[in-house]
Amino acid sequence: MALVGVGEALRIWGGLSAESSRRVVHAGVGIFVAITPYLFARPDLVYVLAVIFVVVNYVTLRQGWFRGIHGTERRSLGTVTFPLALLPALFIGWSMDPGRVFALQLAFLILAFSDPLASVVGTRFGKYVPFATRAKRLTEGKRDSPPSGPIRRTGRTVKTWTGSAAFFISALLLSLAALMWFRSEGQIDWNGSEVVAAAIIVAAVTTAVEALGRRGWDNFFIILAALIVLVFFDEKPENRLVLLIAVAAGLVFGLITYRLRFLDGPGAIAGALLAASVIGLGGWAWAVPSFTFFVLSSLLSRVGRRRKAAVEAVSEKGSRRDAGQVFANGGAGWGLLLIYAVFPAEILYWGFLGAFAAATADTWGTEIGTLSSKPPRLITTWRPAPRGTSGAVSMVGTLGALAGAFVIGLSAWPFAAGPNTSPAMAALAVVGGGFVGSMVDSLIGATVQARFRDPRTGAETERSASDAGAHPLIRGRRWLRNDQVNWLCALSGAALAMACFQAVYFVS
Fold this sequence. Notes:
The chain is mostly helical. It has a domain at 303-508. The chain contains 19 helices and seven strands. The strands form three sheets. The protein has a three-stranded antiparallel sheet with strand order 4-3-7, with no helix packed on it. The chain is globular.
């Protein structure tokens, strides 16, 4: 609370803007968290403080109090997600193993210094192009437009190359200095080259996470990303070189998918992070199924482009995936992989396969079903519906969904053998989870997914707005869009696959 008071004083009497006073408080709190292991013998009280500040900051944000941290023009949950990130960080980096405390400290030091620095540099020196201009030029097959001007008062989060570069350099230097200090204090036993490798990996991963962050959630995910990388690097010495190679491979993957127009810019960054994660943290057993999903689904989306043009016109998004679609299709499995990295359990791998089987089944069902000569039918009423209607299914599409789930199971077959696995269980968990997940997607799409009316054509669409303005909602929940439905689809596949694994485990 003292730091919040300092922020208010700097704003009222020091003449600082809310953005500047917020950065001061941000850095101060980050430093305080980093030194808590020297102030408290146990993390119990720190948990209490974190919960208190989550509640207090949320209430004061809603009420508009403490303008020194909540008075910024752009709406952000950063003051809430900051202490919220401390809860899992304490559990992973202190409660589970006091030897992991160094990872918690470095994660919050990066958040304390690199994040505000990126904001300052990006605001003062960053250039940006309005989204509509970029989209128009990409549609015309042209390169991104040149920078159009410095960022000033935008009212929303805008990421720039200059801000990201400042974040990376700062995080790299800070990681090098901190890790050398931890090494001299005996907290880690890495050699010099391993310190450099870890610093590069942490800086690269946290920079990508910060670039994708919106509405303050980068505060939360920067901490988790740095913590997981450092813990894994420390406890898996045999995988340290693989982790460095995985970051390079992820970068190459992101560039290739962007150049091939499989992913847009933010989507390529998210795809690079996911690729680096499955290669570096999981290995072949996790990487092969996820790459199978992405590569085959992306290629399938290019088949029958003319026929799919009418469907894309009413769909919320086109065939070029963005970061939201990467998270929607891969987020559930990705989360299970991250948990596995710090808390290995075989059941998490089967949940991962179920999530990607469901994502593949849903994607293949949609892409292949669109090519059917017969119109699909709503899964709830069995009435014919236009192609591209959420919740509409067809025989061809259903067979495509089964094929997609089967392909994921087949891709994991060489890696799935173990004391608690069997061919029957593998088939049930992966194919069953994938197919059920796709059916859950269709059911939600037919009932509660948001659908809008295009005022120009009078047709139903998943798009909430167009050049003509906002589209009126005609059914469903406005917040439940295609990405949220896809995420629930993958989560359903993961849950069923883990349930099947647990049932077979107990029976055997």
